[in-house]
């Protein structure tokens, strides 16, 4: 017996999917409304549908979590707070959030609302988890890239705090760390941080290898391999190792799939429910039939993921990005419309099953009209084309599974029927009224009192009077409802007559009263809602538009990845330089004399063992290096402030600032960096709400924006010499530089260089003082020359001709031309009037 069984959390992208999840045995469901959710292309729920969904789930003992897990712009703050109050009022069990500004506001203004840190928040180490817990999160959905040992370490660090952990158990995997991916936003303006990801990682790409020029660009790149789905992952399936997974300190296991059908939700949820129940009973053995069901529901090929120790090569599915079905064998030969297939599976295709035969040139499907002939491990199947030897055969639909799921979806309340026991006392008054009191016990064994009064009345009997047995017999006809009577006490006047409709109306009245007693116990009191609304109104009333003054002194901050780049930037006049730390960082003693002008940048993804190495590095060199740090993920600033008191902390765009509340949360920082997805107007809105406690604001003015950071070892797929560099090229011939850390972790940069050279005057007029040049991995020539150019731009009153000349030089040095990234579109994805 295993007493610790995590909650099973199922996706619901539509009302039908919600019913499927409940029927299939989910303990909780997560879903999104029509706004602020990270799956904008799911059907999602209107406000009325949300209220109905919560009532439906709660009456079946199932929790409902609503996603508000996108970045929130300044203008949206009043609307999203109103939305959160609505969710709180209708009894949502928790809200998932990504935006740290919204997190802080919700925690402060709606203290009774349970908050969960979405995986979009990017929590992947102890500092991130402690940040989420400190700011009010009751649960943290951890990054999918973590190992079991890392999860245990985070759990130990959170011990004694009112927070628990959640991990993904099944479904699609993102190529990059969630919440840090800008790939879709940069390529087509569909931001993953706004729930609009276009999944460019499922497209084909080709490796190119070339020699970097003096500006760090790839010169004369040559194809290395044919195009493949280089960034496409397999799907996660922890089913085969579930008995080990439940021993991890996690409170919930999450199934991905709000874009999936009700059938998918029903199949996957029921399979995991059955497995978890078997683990609870000590009888779990992974079944081929169950694994086949999961594969047929949807599968790009399965991996047990990083959490169970899989390597990146086992996580990736670079050969095909679509649904594969369940693999059963390979073709041995073809003859006259039939193929001989060697079976690799215990699952045998049967009449009515759908199959796909896929070889190197084509794939086609068929439906079996009869049971096939089987001889040992060889089965003969019809083939719609001449398949080559070695072609793969998959089952994509099973007739038996289809029948099973249709039955589940057509009888969603079968397991819940009569699950609420009611005891009641009924009184027949002298005036013929019927009223009484009752008690109902819910699925958590809590009892709820209620009263009822029937709208119908009984009449004086003219012949035979109504007996108590007749009343009980009619009331007990609760079939098809969630309730059943365990005790009915009847008192009062006798000698009454009541037609059947009167007793049926009484039964409905009692059941409705019991239902409302359960539901009302799960929502806040109206007085609490009024206090929350007043608190929010008071907060919004304190907001004053306070446009900053035009700056006359601009600072240029340069980020570099080597000591030589740092020295070059400092000599060229950079006001500050941040050197990206890595475990193999070269000797930096020569920089100590410039300690007031340089600092260390902490990588945006820094796993727990890497963090320990970083702290060791700083501790051992604390007298010879800087006291400035640039952080790039949640929680790291607070962690370093505690570890190294007196340090000056700032943040880069990996800790995205999209609103003034997020900015204010960084009030102890020297500066924070605005998200590169913000438009000019969205930047104006953030800056207009500053107060004396707000930190200074920086903006990335030049450099390659990081599109993806992934645990995949993409460079291991090639043989790149030390003096050569790697890019990937998409189907439109755009090339994306690839940077691999010593650990193998992959960074993919945008195909065009971000530059706000045409917006400098506007940004200075807005009051932005700090400008960041991201020169990482571009070499000392780029760091020096680009620094000199931007110093001229920021500190000189240039004539139009001079500015045009500098712009031309910047474009000439840039990778793939220049782009303003999100400056035109903004987080909403809509182009503004800036051109």
From TrEMBL:
<dbReference type="InterPro" id="IPR020988">
    <property type="entry name" value="Pept_U32_collagenase"/>
</dbReference>
<feature type="domain" description="Peptidase U32 collagenase">
    <location>
        <begin position="393"/>
        <end position="518"/>
    </location>
</feature>
<dbReference type="Pfam" id="PF01136">
    <property type="entry name" value="Peptidase_U32"/>
</dbReference>
<dbReference type="InterPro" id="IPR001539">
    <property type="entry name" value="Peptidase_U32"/>
</dbReference>
<dbReference type="Pfam" id="PF12392">
    <property type="entry name" value="DUF3656"/>
</dbReference>
<dbReference type="InterPro" id="IPR051454">
    <property type="entry name" value="RNA/ubiquinone_mod_enzymes"/>
</dbReference>
<protein>
    <submittedName>
        <fullName>DUF3656 domain-containing protein</fullName>
    </submittedName>
</protein>
């Amino acid at each position: 017996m295993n007493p610790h069984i995590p909650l099973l959390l199922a996706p619901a992208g539509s009302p039908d999917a919600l019913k499927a999840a409940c029927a299939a045995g989910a303990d909780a469901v997560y879903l999104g409304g029509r706004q602020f959710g990270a799956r904008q292309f799911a059907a999602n729920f209107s406000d009325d549908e949300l209220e109905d969904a919560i009532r439906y789930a709660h009456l079946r003992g199932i929790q409902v979590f609503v996603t508000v897990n996108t970045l929130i712009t300044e203008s949206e703050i009043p609307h999203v707070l109103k939305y959160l109050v609505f969710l709180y009022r209708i009894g949502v069990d928790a809200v998932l959030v990504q935006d740290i500004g919204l997190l802080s506001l919700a925690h402060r203004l709606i203290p009774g609302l349970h908050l969960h840190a979405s995986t979009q928040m990017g929590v992947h180490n102890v500092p991130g988890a402690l940040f989420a817990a400190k700011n009010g999160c009751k649960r943290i959905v951890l990054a999918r890239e973590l190992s079991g040992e890392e999860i245990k370490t985070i759990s130990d660090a959170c011990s004694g705090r009112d927070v628990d952990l959640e991990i993904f158990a099944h479904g699609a995997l993102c190529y990059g760390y969630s919440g840090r991916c800008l790939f879709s936003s940069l390529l087509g303006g569909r931001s993953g941080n706004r729930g609009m990801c276009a999944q460019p990682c499922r497209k084909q790409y080709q490796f190119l290898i070339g020699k970097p020029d003096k500006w760090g660009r790839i010169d004369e790149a040559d194809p290395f391999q044919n195009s493949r789905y280089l960034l496409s992952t397999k799907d996660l399936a922890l089913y085969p190792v579930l008995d080990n997974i439940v021993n991890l300190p996690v409170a919930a296991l999450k199934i991905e799939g709000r874009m999936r059908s009700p059938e998918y939700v029903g199949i996957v949820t029921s399979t995991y429910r059955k497995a978890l129940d078997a683990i609870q009973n000590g009888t779990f053995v992974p079944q081929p039939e169950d694994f086949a069901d999961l594969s047929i529901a949807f599968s790009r090929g399965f991996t047990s993921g990083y959490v169970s120790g899989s390597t990146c090569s086992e996580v990736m599915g670079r050969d095909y990005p679509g649904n594969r079905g369940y693999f059963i064998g390979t073709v041995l030969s073809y003859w006259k419309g039939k193929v001989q297939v060697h079976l690799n599976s215990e699952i045998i295709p049967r009449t009515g099953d759908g199959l796909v035969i896929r070889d190197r040139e084509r794939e086609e499907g068929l439906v079996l009209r009869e049971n096939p002939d089987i001889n040992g491990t060889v089965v003969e199947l019809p083939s719609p084309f001449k398949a080559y030897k070695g072609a793969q055969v998959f089952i994509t639909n099973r007739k038996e599974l289809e029948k099973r799921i249709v039955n589940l979806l057509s009888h969603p309340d079968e397991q819940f029927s009569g699950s609420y026991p009611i005891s009641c006392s009924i009184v027949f008054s002298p005036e013929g009224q019927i009223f009484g009191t009752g008690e109902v016990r819910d699925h958590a064994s809590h009892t709820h009192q209620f009263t009822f009064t029937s709208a119908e009345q009984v009449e004086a009997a003219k012949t035979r009077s109504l007996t108590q047995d007749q009343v009980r017999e009619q009331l007990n006809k609760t079939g098809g409802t969630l309730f059943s009577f365990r005790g009915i006490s009847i008192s009062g006047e006798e000698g009454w007559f009541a037609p059947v409709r009167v007793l049926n109306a009484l039964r409905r009245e009692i059941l409705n009263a019991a239902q409302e007693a359960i539901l009302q116990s799960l929502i806040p009191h109206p007085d609490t809602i009024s206090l929350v609304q007043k608190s929010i109104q008071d907060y919004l009333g304190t907001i004053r538009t306070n446009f900053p003054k035009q700056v006359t002194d601009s600072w240029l901050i340069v980020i570099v990845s080597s000591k030589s780049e740092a020295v070059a930037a400092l000599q060229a006049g950079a006001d500050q330089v941040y050197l990206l730390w890595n475990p193999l960082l070269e000797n930096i003693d020569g920089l100590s004399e410039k300690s007031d002008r340089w600092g260390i940048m902490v990588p945006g993804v820094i796993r727990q063992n890497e963090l320990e190495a970083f702290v060791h590095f700083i501790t051992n060199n604390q007298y010879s290096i800087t006291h400035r740090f640039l952080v790039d993920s949640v929680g790291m600033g607070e962690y370093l402030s505690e570890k190294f008191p007196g340090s000056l902390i700032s943040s880069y765009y990996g800790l995205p600032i999209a609103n003034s509340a997020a900015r204010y949360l960084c009030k102890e920082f020297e500066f924070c960096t605005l998200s590169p997805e913000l438009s000019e107007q969205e930047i104006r809105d953030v800056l207009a709400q500053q107060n004396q406690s707000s930190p200074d604001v920086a903006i990335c003015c030049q450099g390659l924006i990081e599109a993806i950071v992934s645990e995949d070892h993409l460079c291991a797929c090639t043989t790149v010499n030390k003096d050569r560099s790697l890019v990937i090229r998409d189907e439109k011939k755009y090339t994306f530089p690839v940077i691999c850390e010593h650990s193998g972790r992959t960074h993919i940069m945008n195909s065009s260089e971000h530059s706000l050279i045409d917006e400098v005057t506007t940004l200075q007029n807005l009051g932005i003082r700090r400008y960041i040049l991201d020169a990482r991995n571009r070499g000392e020539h780029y760091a020096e020359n680009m620094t000199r150019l931007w110093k001229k731009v920021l500190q000189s009153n240039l004539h139009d001709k001079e500015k045009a000349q500098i712009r031309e030089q910047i474009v000439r040095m840039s990778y793939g031309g220049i782009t303003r990234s999100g400056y035109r579109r903004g987080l909403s994805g809509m182009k503004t009037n800036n051109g």
